[in-house]
Amino acid sequence: MRVLVIGGGGREHAIAWKIAQSPKVVKVFVLPGNAGTANEKKIKNIDLGERYNPEGLVEFATEKNIDLTIVGPEKFLVEGIVDLFKLKGLKIIGPTKSAARLEGSKNFSKSFMLKHAIPTSNFESFTNSFDAKEYIKKQNFPLVIKADGLAGGKGVTVVKSLSEGYFTIDDYLEKKRFGTSTNTIVIEDFVVGREVSFIALTDGNSFFSFPLSQDHKRLLDDDQGPNTGGMGAYSPVGFVDDKLHRKIVEVVIKPTINGMKKEGTPYTGFLYAGLMISPDNDIKVLEYNCRLGDPEAQVLMMKMKGDFLNVLELAVDKNLEQFNDYNDFWDCRSSLGVVIATAGYPKNPELGEKIKISPEFDPSSDSIKIFYAGTNFKDGFLLTSGGRVFCVSVLDNDLSKARDKVYSVVNKIDFEKMQFRKDIAKDAID
Question: What is the pLDDT of residue 324?
């Protein structure tokens, strides 16, 4: 089979790496890919230049007789790339443009949850700053203010006072910090608890669930600093037992899939539910994503023992109910990933720094993998080209050992002013 993976981040490196391990695969094309995918067996990077858009990708898939396409970035999904591929009779993993509104519009997703009795926090949506400011005058703080549209995982601000709320409302609605994504904002109650990422692959009826994981979204240790695309993750999540897992499935995952069918927009592809679990196991959906999380994907691909392509084929052919190998599909060991970012990330990443990886690092280990993200080669040097540069991912018998292992590898990487969190999974171990 010839497989196409769209995207150039760490998530796409992990997906392509895992798919390339299938004996069915002849070639995996990654568009545009990065310095990591450029050096993997059976994987080839393709630079489409100005043709890197949904129409150009359809043309490429047709020209190269691609058997299956996996979309990494949410932007293409929200723009309707799945609809275009299906019109051409091309197999692709992902939701249609209409279904991708679960991520593409916070107002749509919150209204959808309210309509279908899926637990989430109270909210209101606004298109003008005066009404938004009048609303928060009557609310208790902290509050959460979100960009309605896509903002690269950064369009969420927790405000602790009226003055912070006014500033953020103006920043979003008046100054258009995230462009058209802030034509509308959502203001919702702040909820307390522990976050969990529940990711499933669905064919619109049945679903295949990934092991639960936990992302660390804030830039700095102890969950300080601005929101990012994700600074690290681990799996499994110890505080979620089988009973709570079943509850999540019954009150969130099944109602979401069934609700989308009722809306006339069946959901297919990866469904990511970002959840908050309260101390008494009350569940609230914080957000939906319509693709694999990043860095959750890197961590989960490390845990995957089975043939990823087999599951993807069942999903695209709407035969997921036939999958019956779940227990043997996943490695029972703990997986942990730490993201290394550039100085200035997430607002103003400093790019073009030369990267050094110690010769002591052994890339052949099956329990350690450096997934590349914002990287490229120029004049024989490995350089930073994006805010998030690597996700160092490991497997070990427990989280404590995995944590020691991952940071020993992180310390073998060096570039000017690199930054990373030093407390990934610390709370799960302490």
Answer: 85
